[in-house]
Write a structure and sequence with these properties.
homodimer; 210 residues; alpha+beta; 7 helices; globular
């Protein structure tokens, strides 16, 4: 099993933290996204969508998309449980993880990819053809980040973790999202005490260094 | 168990088809998205994100997000299997379903929500505050739809279904995506014979009428 990875990108980090929580160590192959290596023929032969992370199994099967990769790992190595134990907890963790992705990571990605010069003509991840940045979409992304942080702080005022009372994949996604948002100066607002408390706790876990 | 539903919207239809494939019949509560009823206090008390579908369990637990709802149903009613049987098939179906969502449904949603007059100031689903349509994002969405259809036809030239050789949640997502795209005159290109063959087969299933 080996992981096509990119050290500085937020999505592959989600898988790395997931692996560390499971105490699994696998081979990593570094792909440089800033240099556009994910859009060159060598990597497109591995994943035609040009996206990292991608997991390659020993039988050659390729799995992309963070949560699909984590699903495979969770099924093969069930403990510690990161995606729920029964129908209800699995569904609620999946729902909360999607809130982080849709309301948080997607808004951050819109704000980031539509503003930084290096991606001015590559405004969508994994798309080979020229795609121009849209300044209004960067603004829309920033408004989304504000909503995401407000909702997260409210949720964490009554829950220990992002999906209830147990650490889960949703915390991993949110931690990577928050650290990603710092790139565009959108760290957790200082006054969001509940999110600050949560962030301190999850950042103190050994896995966060992945 | 009851479902907050909207007859004409593509995402709740994915859950309705999933339920029909499982031969389950549950209570439905209709919410009118065009009239903005999903953004009014009564529904926001059910789901603060203002999104449909939302599933309410008999114990009052609320689950939103299509795939999280389907996960709950799949776990409670495993047959017929729609989300995989082992680690590899679960991961591959999840990956393919996400391709449909990210490359297909998201592009279609960008093209639709940023062009139709009724959503000119409500360009993101579920967001209460005014969000103006972005014409360039509509164009970007249309380019994404073209890429999605090209990749789908290529995949279906060597696979019977959207995620391999078995009907799955990925077919349900893709069927609803294709029928949604017809609203903005982006039906399957006539020359895409493999996608046409697949579409005829999945549309002929009784569940497609949900």
């Amino acid at each position: 099993m080996r992981l096509y990875d990119c050290k500085e990108a937020p999505n592959p980090r989600r898988v790395r933290i997931f692996l560390k929580e499971k105490r699994l160590s696998i081979e990593h192959i570094e792909i440089n996204i800033r240099a556009g290596d994910n859009l060159k023929p060598a990597f497109l032969a591995v994943n035609p969508r040009g996206l990292i992370p991608t997991l390659e199994l020993d039988d050659g099967t390729l799995i992309d998309e963070v949560v699909a990769i984590c699903r495979y790992i969770e099924e093969m190595h069930p403990t510690p449980v990161l995606m729920g134990t029964d129908a209800k907890s699995k569904a609620l963790i999946e729902s909360r993880n999607r809130h982080v992705e849709i309301d948080g990571i997607n808004a951050m990605t819109d704000a980031f990819r539509n503003s930084v010069p290096i991606f001015a003509k590559r405004a969508i991840q994994g798309v080979v053809e020229e795609t121009l940045a849209i300044p209004e979409l960067c603004q829309r992304g920033h408004a989304g980040i504000t909503r995401f942080y407000d909702a997260l702080n409210k949720y964490l005022s009554t829950h220990e973790f992002v999906a209830g009372s147990q650490f889960s994949i949703a915390d991993i996604s949110a931690l990577c999202a928050v650290d990603f948002a710092a790139w565009i100066k959108r760290s957790i607002p200082e006054e969001h005490e509940h999110t600050q408390r949560w962030y301190a706790a999850v950042s103190a876990r050994e896995s966060s260094r992945a």
